[in-house]
Amino acid sequence: xxxxxxxxxxxxxxxxxxxxxxxxxxxxxxxxxxxxxxxxxxxxxxxxxxxxxxxxxxxxxxxxxxxxxxxxxxxxxxxxxxxxxxxxxxxxxxxxxxxxxxxxxxxxxxxxxxxxxxxxxxxxxxxxxxxxxxxxxxxxxxxxxxxxxxx
Length: 151
Ligand SMILES: CC(C)(COP(=O)(O)OP(=O)(O)OC[C@H]1O[C@@H](n2cnc3c(N)ncnc32)[C@H](O)[C@@H]1OP(=O)(O)O)[C@@H](O)C(=O)NCCC(=O)NCCS
Fold this sequence. Notes:
7-stranded mixed β-sheet, alpha+beta, 29% helix, binds coenzyme A
């Protein structure tokens, strides 16, 4: 696949990955997902949870669900030590290719307005902002930008 990350190894997440994922989650988000939230997504039939590993350690993960013609990104993070090496771009490129292969027509996500790295990532992938959810992040009363990519 011509995404510049041909060597990227992704595999399905499993419950034994959760402790390492929670470590990344805690240093990545103001309001991290809990163990229960990861367990719930792993048990769900409509969500797909994938991880990347480097020398046997989880370096990143992505969780999304596809609902007929739409795909929604629910979570994506990369270990701080492995950021800016194209990992998130690679994970996103892979799942967007999966979406195209599966006749999914559009991809949606929400992002904090202040999240410059994530907004840069999504812009680079071609996402466009289509709206705003006022005070979506209740703990900081920050707005979410809703972004969409037509596939
Ligand atoms: C957002 C995040 C997943 C990006 O992961 P990453 O592997 O470092 O991203 P990549 O190296 O693939 O970068 C892809 C593009 O994103 C943008 N980007 C990434 N980090 C950036 C930063 N710190 N500042 C500005 N733009 C950034 C750039 O456009 C970059 O392309 P470039 O390297 O050609 O400039 C990572 O910073 C992270 O885990 N953040 C905390 C969790 C989070 O905010 N998740 C998103 C929730 S909506």
